[in-house]
Design goal:
355 residues, nine-stranded mixed β-sheet, 14 strands, 29% helix, 18% strand
Length: 355
């Protein structure tokens, strides 16, 4: 049983983080809910929505219409929602209005029966609800969400993984989708920094990935990761590597280098990370360590940006080769965009500024 195998991982890894790891294995989002799997053609398609920024019923209705255009154009297997669903500061102590925003944006998704998973942005909890309370609300109100709070001893709420299974073998995991809480306005105790992935989250990911490798007979499962706030490496990849897409504003990253992306690259199973946060950026590039770093395309009508049309990033994988993926931007009028190529200028990366 999964509980028995969890006991094996407890014996091997031990300690507080592994207690949380066992909890996360037992309460994996796919258990008791719809499971994600490759389709009969061996394909799996993810549509990333980011920075929906609900502010009023009027802009919310327009954003919902964009969502429906993107979903019907791409017919994804799931949605990855990378934060800032609301301009949360506008809803401080206005919790009923805040919840109406969620329903405005995600009732259409529910009506289309599309599974979806959420990673917190820096603005989502500015309404006054705790981050865990928001996830409790989502789980209670939206049957198709796969969002989980994750282990309670780890920083943040919403650190979890979702397995994707084989089209032909119901019990065979092919890959893993990781969702992380990148925080709001503090990093390593610095309250003048954007949030970041803290040390306990890195430890949890490394332990959970090892346990999943064990469950998979010692073979690492390839993964993709989703969170909201980019790290300094998004600056580095633009300056040091060939990228596709546009950079029309500074990378608003935490002031502290936590080493998380470097830990991902060293561990090796996560092939790409997808973020939002900077509304006017939509580029992808590969680091010298071999991990691909991508922005989505701002989806929502509220708040500023993007420079061009709103839209979503599409990520398509093949069961035959889950270590690689294709990705493109679908815009709000239903077109696939041709993104410009950027050659590195080899300039030193700017420091991430305080907020």
């Amino acid at each position: 049983s999964l509980q028995m195998r969890c006991g094996v991982s407890l014996l091997i890894f031990g300690g507080l983080v592994t207690v949380a790891l066992c909890d996360s294995l037992v309460r994996s989002p796919s258990l008791g809910k719809q499971e994600l799997r490759f389709d009969s053609q061996g394909k799996f398609k993810i549509l990333q929505f980011t920075d929906l920024h609900y502010e009023t019923p009027e802009d919310g209705a327009k954003t919902a219409a964009i969502e429906q255009t993107l979903i019907t154009s791409e017919r994804p297997n799931m949605l990855a929602v990378t934060g800032d669903v609301h301009s949360g500061w506008l809803f401080y102590n206005k919790i009923p209005e805040y919840k109406v925003g969620w329903h405005t944006l995600f009732d259409p998704v529910e009506n289309l029966s599309v599974p979806w998973a959420f990673a917190h942005g820096n603005h989502d909890s500015q309404c006054g609800l705790g981050r865990g309370e928001i996830i409790d609300f989502l789980k209670a109100e939206f049957p198709h969400t796969l969002t989980e709070k994750g282990p309670l001893v780890v920083t943040g709420s919403g650190n979890y993984y979702i397995p994707v299974y084989s089209a032909s073998n119901p019990s065979k995991m092919v890959m893993v989708l990781w969702f992380m809480d990148s925080g709001s306005e503090s990093c390593q105790g610095d309250k003048h920094s954007y949030g970041c992935i803290e040390a306990s989250q890195t430890d949890w990911f490394l332990a959970a990935s090892k346990a999943l490798t064990l469950l998979n007979g010692g073979r690492p499962l390839p993964g993709l990761m989703f969170f909201h706030i980019p790290t300094a490496q998004w600056n580095d990849v633009w300056n040091q590597a060939a990228c596709r897409g546009e950079k029309n504003e500074s990378v608003a990253c935490p002031t502290h280098e936590t080493g998380f992306v470097k830990a991902l690259a060293k561990e090796g199973s996560v092939k790409a990370v997808f973020v939002g946060h900077d509304h006017d950026n939509d580029y992808c590039g590969q680091t010298t360590d071999g991990i691909t770093l991508c922005y989505g395309r701002k989806t929502g009508v509220g708040c500023y940006g993007p420079v061009g049309l709103r839209g979503g990033r599409v990520i398509e994988l093949s069961e035959a080769d889950p270590n690689h993926f294709n990705t493109w931007i679908r815009n709000e009028i239903g077109d696939i965009e041709v993104l410009p190529d950027h050659q590195p200028d080899r300039q030193p990366s700017p420091a991430c500024g305080a907020i």
